Amino acid sequence: MESSSSKMSHVSKRNESEEYRSDSEIDNKLKEIMSSVLGKKGAAVTDLYQYEGFWCPLARLEGTLRAQKHFKPQPNQVILSSFPKSGTTWLKALIFAIMTQSHVSEPTNPLLTRLSHECVPFIEFDFRSSSPKLNLDVPLVATHISYTSLPKSIINSGCKIVYLCRDPKDVLVSTWHFIRKVLVNEEFSAVRDIPLEDAFEFFCQGLSFCGPYWDHLLGYWRASSESPERILFLKYEDLKNETGYWVKKIAQFIGYPFSLEEEDKGVVQKIIDLCSFENMSSLEVSKNGMIWLEKNGVNTMEIKNNTFFRKGKVGDWKNHLTHEMAMQLDQILEQKLSGSGLTFNVPLPSIR
Ligand code: PAP
């Protein structure tokens, strides 16, 4: 027979879930944001709304509001945060592999049959009302939420945060290609066929998914400078150039250091090889699999997994942006980051 305390806990869980599904406070806040700010076009897949200084698509915004109110990190949960199109798919795989390193060579390794986005959930995505998950009870979760808007429960938890960013010129080019590939339906053709010059203008105005780009960076950069033991700040370019060094650094930082024996057995290299662009992009699940975006519990848009793998290179912007465009974006960045100690042409110091 069920004890009265266990019955009580079922009842309170149900109430919590019902309260969560129809949360009038959040619904009102969303309405307020939607009525006070017009949805704007930008270098993004859908219209963007500004919240706490950052541009966000509506579905992610709703998830962000709910996560701010309801998300409770697990003890020692690791949070991977990134600016979109900075290499999240890759870093999710790397950290997942670090955390499950003893399985790295096993044929049953989930990373061989599931996209890393399926292995590591996005907080703001899973906290939308259409897919409410009150507890993301996994050791690693990801987010694109700015530091300003991170749920206070994360900031107060002392959980480790690993942040990833990338040269904005490559972020812009990657985003532009993503938009063109992801919006297959004709109804999206106006957004999909946005000229690169227009996407560039939007990006320079800060109008991109999670933009302004520089404010996203600076929030995490400053927090990481103040609390380096809590936030590890990474750049895609450094990760590409010195993958082994940074994999070990990340492992140590999140509390999963490699033993000498593991290093001798080549575990670090195995993780690097498993997660490499060449390997991940050639897996069956990456070539032919898909994930669904849903609305109110209904699948509304499929995203082919191969859209998350394009070139995986540093500096592909050179094949798309003019010299003038590159100079303009570099100048904006230099001005926005001035005085912060963060630059993009110098690698972060690797302390051996
Ligand atoms: P998301 O924000 O939608 O999650 P994200 O994974 O951050 O996307 O970025 C995609 C970029 O990472 C793509 O860059 P590109 O367009 O310049 O090619 C993608 O190719 C790259 N990428 C994906 N997997 C890897 C990997 N294993 N190694 C290196 N780069 C990768």
Automatic annotation (TrEMBL):
Its EC number(s):
2.8.2.-
Family as reported in the entry's similarity comment: Belongs to the sulfotransferase 1 family.
For this entry, the protein name equals Sulfotransferase
- InterPro entries in UniProt: P-loop_NTPase, Sulfotransferase_dom
Bias class Basic and acidic residues marks the residues at: 13-24
Q: What is the lineage of its organism?
A: Eukaryota, Viridiplantae, Streptophyta, Embryophyta, Tracheophyta
Region Disordered, residue ranges: 1-24
In the record, what terms sit under GO molecular function? sulfotransferase activity
* Designated gene of the protein: FSTL_3
List each copy of the Sulfotransferase domain by range: 75-341
Indicate yes or no for the key word Transferase.
yes
- Keyword Transferase assigned to the entry: answer is yes
Q: Which domain of life is it from?
A: Eukaryota
Enzyme class, top EC level, equals transferase
Keywords, comma-separated and alphabetical: Transferase
